[in-house]
């Protein structure tokens, strides 16, 4: 088995580098923006409304 280097995961990811990038993203207010940009708000609201309607229908049975 290969010896793991300090500050690296088993996959070879540099832990310090990832932490630094996360800190910079959070500081710049960019944390999570890639997900927000891909979200269709109307579609999510519609799906939530449908789920609530099904839940209400199932609880009345």
UniProtKB/TrEMBL annotation:
<keyword id="KW-0677">Repeat</keyword>
<dbReference type="Pfam" id="PF04259">
    <property type="entry name" value="SASP_gamma"/>
</dbReference>
<protein>
    <recommendedName>
        <fullName>Small, acid-soluble spore protein gamma-type</fullName>
    </recommendedName>
</protein>
<feature type="region of interest" description="Disordered">
    <location>
        <begin position="42"/>
        <end position="61"/>
    </location>
</feature>
<dbReference type="GO" id="GO:0030435">
    <property type="term" value="P:sporulation resulting in formation of a cellular spore"/>
</dbReference>
<keyword id="KW-0749">Sporulation</keyword>
<comment type="similarity">
    <text>Belongs to the gamma-type SASP family.</text>
</comment>
<feature type="compositionally biased region" description="Low complexity">
    <location>
        <begin position="42"/>
        <end position="51"/>
    </location>
</feature>
<dbReference type="InterPro" id="IPR006341">
    <property type="entry name" value="Spore_gamma"/>
</dbReference>
């Amino acid at each position: 088995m290969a010896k793991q280097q300090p500050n690296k995961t088993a996959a070879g990811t540099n832990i310090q580098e990832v932490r630094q990038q996360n800190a910079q993203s959070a500081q710049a207010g960019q944390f999570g923006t890639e997900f927000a940009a891909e979200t269709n708000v109307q579609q999510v609201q519609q799906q939530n409304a449908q789920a609530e309607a099904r839940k209400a229908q199932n609880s009345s049975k």
